[in-house]
Amino acid sequence: MYGWKSLLIKCSALLWEGDKNMPTIFKWEGKSSKGNIVKGELAAESREEVQSYLRKQRIVPKKIAEKSKPLFSSLSIGAGAIKDKEAVPIAKAFTREHPKIKATYIRQHGSQAMERFMREIQTNAVTADVAQIHADYYTALMKLDAFEKVNWKEFGVPPHHIHQNKLFVHAFDTPFVFVYNHNLVKPEEAPKTWEDFLDPKWKGKFTVDTRPSGYIRLTGAWGTEKVLDYLRKLAKNEPIYVRGFTKAATLMAAGDYMMSSLMYLQSCLFVKKKGGPLSYNVPDPVPTAWYFYGVPKGIKNPNAARVFLAWLGSKGFKLMEDLNWGQAAPFEGSRKAKFYKGKQRSYPPTDEQVPDRQKYNLEMIRAMGVKK
Asked: So what's the pLDDT on residue 366?
């Protein structure tokens, strides 16, 4: 069995020798079966392979152009997915340390990207060497048995950065907070506890995202019944239903909304950094989740993928502290560690707690009073 350092060198050499076999990223444009112009990116060996894939998706290709050769692609959904300005410096830092491995980040964002990733798994056509998994799709992906089992501890990844099922590496962290416009709500009056949002004086004055992303995380600490009961009470206070955390934060800064019952910390910080009059309070427990990454089965560069995740889970994750601390992982002396101090963290429930996550999501949406 190789130690972490010797295996790191071996993996680098293997990838260097096989560079000519690395897939190419192609940018494509075509017309869907409904006549709409659609665009995207796809990793493939040739333009012919891209054309074949698009036709299977009932897309008539119009333009196909070579972009680059990837190692690292993040398939993710939700406002919390890391953006180019955060991912590119991380990929470059990795390549500086491992010059024989070129790490390329490609952002494929939205639920359609995750669904496309699941189709790729089912057809043995995965295009990403490293994949980010969203918590809402975790159960479905586990049923597909889509990821390599890797002993991340032997690669030097500390235990708290290894997922409970041993398949994934934890890299970044996405807590939710109570956000308010401090020009419209006095700091001393702004809700600080979960119960504060049930106060009739806030009736119709706060937003709730139509996706129960924050509440699925709260379920880990509270359990399903307590969360559903809370959401039914919250619905009676007539929240304003919105879709998209950054969009809601932007409109809140403009004065359209007074406050939000739950919002990603990084969405608040993004708008606040641009001068928006936003402040936040940290709930207790704090709904949060890790961004976690794995090595899909059947990829072209598994050794390089393992090297990258070993680096990301053991040291690379710290770079996010200066790029966007709102989604950085907590470590000793970090802002995120201070943020969590004295608070209970609540993570998404286990499969034992919630065997059918999609069913539970629908139950939460109904309890929230969201109208279709």
From this structure: 96
Beta-ladder partners of 201: none
Judge if pTM exceeds 0.85.
Answer: no
Burial 347-367 (b: 16+ CB within 10 A, else e): bbbeeeebeebeebbebbbeb
User: Could you tell me the CA-to-CA distances from 33 to 38, 55, 71, 100, 118 in Å, in that order?
Assistant: 10, 10, 31, 42, 21
288-293: average pLDDT: 89
In a shared domain, residues 276 and 219: yes
Which of 29-38, 100-109, 173-182, 196-205 is predicted least confidently? Answer: 100-109
**Are 223 and 302 contained in the same domain?**
no
Q: The CATH number of the domain where 111 resides is what?
A: 3.40.190.10
Contacts 24+ apart (CB under 8 A), 149-154: 150/295, 150/306, 150/309, 152/309, 152/310, 152/313, 154/1, 154/2, 154/3, 154/4, 154/7
- pLDDT at residue number 300: 81
Domain that holds residue 150: 4-23+69-173+290-327
> pLDDT, tens digit, for every residue of 125-141?
887 888 887 777 777 88
Dihedral angle of Cα 223, 289, 126, 47, to the nearest 10 degrees? 130
**How confident is the model at residue 372, as a pLDDT?**
64
Question: In the chain, what's the furthest Cα-to-Cα distance?
Answer: 67
